[in-house]
Design goal:
Elements: H1 13-33, H2 45-53, E1 54-57, E2 62-65, H3 72-82, H4 98-101, E3 105-106, H5 112-121, E4 123-128, H6 131-144, H7 152-169, H8 184-192, H9 194-198, H10 217-221, E5 230-233, H11 237-247, H12 265-274, H13 279-288, H14 290-296
Parallel strand pairs: 2-4, 4-5
Antiparallel strand pairs: 1-2, 1-3
Helix pairs in contact: 1-14, 6-12, 7-8, 8-13
Length: 308
């Protein structure tokens, strides 16, 4: 593990050992999968995606790779809170358009030499999540949440998403096209369609790359080329977030917002949703996130028992 800048007497040997073990496992997985080779080496549009995923705090010399649906909204709230004087309450910051509203910077804003220097010298961290669980969370937040609960811009955008899925992946030809209640099966077939993988109609980039809410984590954060000082997991968020804040020397200023009971809701819902998918679709999902499963040691066979 890199030991950049930040050391805290509050860090226990057990915590350090856990992070060292994660770093070693990731390094071994990178070698075993050749994920540091051409397959995961970002160039051109992929490089821009990576640079757009890295949040920067120059004052505290911090870099955080944004992985949507792995606690990223709250980490962006933390960065926004740290940008104020005095440091604010993260929950006081609306996650909607938070980067622009609070002037948060991404690595893409810097010249290449300045970006490289920050990658080499700043404290860097990432939080990852089981790909099956993360995918279901993305589906729920964009396709299950009532459109009326979104602001105007997102309401229009997500309604467009839903119309596309209904028009192209609904099996019942006689179904009412105005019914925008997208099922998980419809969403999964959209995601694994070769046309989507070639050029995602829901891309937020002109390149057609997968929407970041369901793009593989290794594509967003390039963990085999960037040595992150901390690799946290969504499932151990409370302990890992506390550890990160202490490594950042800001634990006395703020806390990572608590998930409470909501944290386990997506996981407990997995059997019901994945049971609706065919084995073929699940196999395609597994292939899509194959590198993520291997790099971060998640169980690629976890949902097999739910699939008929």
């Amino acid at each position: 593990m890199n030991q950049h800048n930040i050391h805290s007497p509050e860090i226990s040997p057990k915590e350090e050992a856990q992070q060292n073990a994660r770093a070693k496992a990731l390094l071994a997985a990178c070698s075993a999968t050749n994920a540091a080779g051409d397959k995961a080496s970002p160039t051109g549009a992929r490089r821009q995606r990576f640079l757009s995923s890295i949040l920067v705090d120059d004052r505290r010399r911090l870099l955080y790779c944004i992985v949507p649906k792995a606690g990223s909204s709250n980490w962006q709230r933390v960065f926004a809170a740290l940008s104020t004087e005095p440091v604010g309450d993260p929950l006081a910051f609306d996650a909607y358009n938070i980067n622009k509203r609070h002037g948060l910077k991404h690595l893409r804003a810097y010249r290449p030499s300045e970006g490289r220097r920050r990658l080499e010298t700043y404290f860097k961290f990432i939080f990852v999540r089981d790909p099956y669980e993360r995918l279901l969370s993305a589906f729920a937040s964009i396709f299950l949440k009532p459109l009326a609960d979104f602001g105007t811009q997102h309401k229009l955008m997500f309604a467009k998403y839903r119309r596309h899925v209904v028009a192209n992946y609904r099996r019942d030809a006689d179904a009412d096209p105005r019914d925008l209640n997208v099922t998980f099966d419809e969403f999964a077939r959209y995601l694994t369609d070769e046309l989507t993988l070639a050029a995602d109609p829901f891309s937020v980039s002109y390149t057609g790359s997968l929407n970041p809410h369901w793009a593989p984590m290794y594509e967003l954060c390039d963990p085999c080329r960037v040595r992150y000082d901390v690799v946290g997991t969504h499932r151990t968020m409370a302990a890992d977030a506390d550890y990160v804040l202490r490594r950042m020397n800001v634990a006395h200023l703020l806390r990572y917002p608590s998930y409470g009971a909501k944290q386990n809701m997506t996981r407990s819902a997995m059997p019901d949703f994945y049971r609706s998918l065919s084995a073929d679709v699940v196999a395609k999902i597994r292939r899509l996130y194959d590198v993520d499963f291997k790099l971060f040691r998640f169980n690629a066979s976890e949902v097999d028992e739910f699939v008929s």
